[in-house]
Amino acid sequence: LQWANQLDASSEKLKVQQLTSDLGFGLIATEPIEADEEVISIPYGILLTTEYAEASNLATLFNLKKSLFEEVSALKLCISLLNERHNECSFWKSYIDFLPRTYSNPIFWSCEEFELAAISAESELFYRLVRNLARQYCILFLTLEKLRSQESYYFTQYFTWEEFRWSVASLMSRQNVVPNKQGSSKQVVLIPYWDLLNHTEGEVTTFFHADSLQIKCTAMKNYNPGEEVHIYYGRKSSAEFLMFQGFTPQENISSKITIKLGMSEKDELAALKKPLLHLTGTPLAGRFHFYPNCVPMISPDLLTFVRIFVLKRDETGDLLNSVKNNRNELKRLSEFDQCISIEHEVRVWKYLEMRVFLLSRQYTQRLNNVNEELKESHIYKLIIHEQESLEVLRNACIQYRETLEDTQSLTSLPYLSNIDHSS
Fold this sequence. Notes:
By secondary structure, the chain is α+β, with helices and mostly antiparallel strands. It contains 15 helices and 12 strands. The chain has helices at 2-6, 50-55, 59-64, 66-71, 75-85, 93-98, 111-117, 123-147, 161-174, 238-244, 270-280, 300-309, 313-325, 342-366, 378-405, and strands at residues 14-18, 25-29, 38-43, 48-49, 175-179, 186-190, 198-199, 206-209, 214-218, 230-231, 257-262, 285-290. It has a 3-stranded antiparallel beta sheet with strand order 3-9-8, with no helix packed on it. Strands 4-6-5 form a 3-stranded antiparallel beta sheet. It has a two-stranded antiparallel sheet with strand order 1-2. 32% of the residues are buried.
């Protein structure tokens, strides 16, 4: 804090305070703060930026593996952070020394936690992250071996997997994007001191001011002295929060559940349904999403897929004929206030109800043998959150299907917000 204040960072009504062992540090109000009042101002000069990394002697490494660093733009800042960590004279030494030494996102998980993660519908996110990072580490390790005699980097002798994953996790959990000094392009940066603000559901209140080259943050609501001041980290699913920030928020309007569906070749109507899927831009097989805290609670592409999937022969023929005469007929398949018929829509929601039930049952069966120690892990908390979300989704499907069955005479749908998703 002293280091940041000496460099013109402004936060007169805040102090740093240790919270719980799980939450780490946070910023606490020392005086009353009103909603929309500026609480922090950070000058551009104390940011650790990609622009700085590119101008350093690391440029040789960046140019040698240009394709890799262009593919993963944040990797430049990751390497720069590692280099600064082992530079005893670094301008950012006070900031870097204050960063956590370990993290709870997937690259710090145990083998047991990764095995548990297989239960999650979002498990591929975590596996893909570690696979990609392992590949990047191997490429960089071999490249640095060639450069040892040519370039003097502070971090070269410390370039272990443990050091690399620390740098990646530090960056993933607190990176932001701001314009460069000239305003000509966007870059990944770290924002010292401001990144001590923890997350809560709300709206973004931090912005870059190009005229003064400052990052300014305003309060989302009124705060009393002693209350923790929060910001909103942006729209992410609960699995993405775990992957980047290392925790699963208790409230998350953007929470989603992934379900894998596909058109079977054994479906006798597959040859008729495939052209409809193609015309709507819907994949024959893929990952679709439920949004348990939103209305509507399913994505348009999922609704389109299921509406085509449950078509009977006569319905499929009628729809194909309608599409030949009027392509706008296809729009009805993704619109929640439209339907082919109430009877068809009842089948749609019966199918969704059944799929959610089967997915939920898999969770229950696979969670039976989880040991007590793993129940304290963040991945277990995510899995329980997903299981509870599936129950909400199933109840909503049942209610909506029952509403449809009670309104067989309607030609259009009751609006989805009339359904109580929380029961």
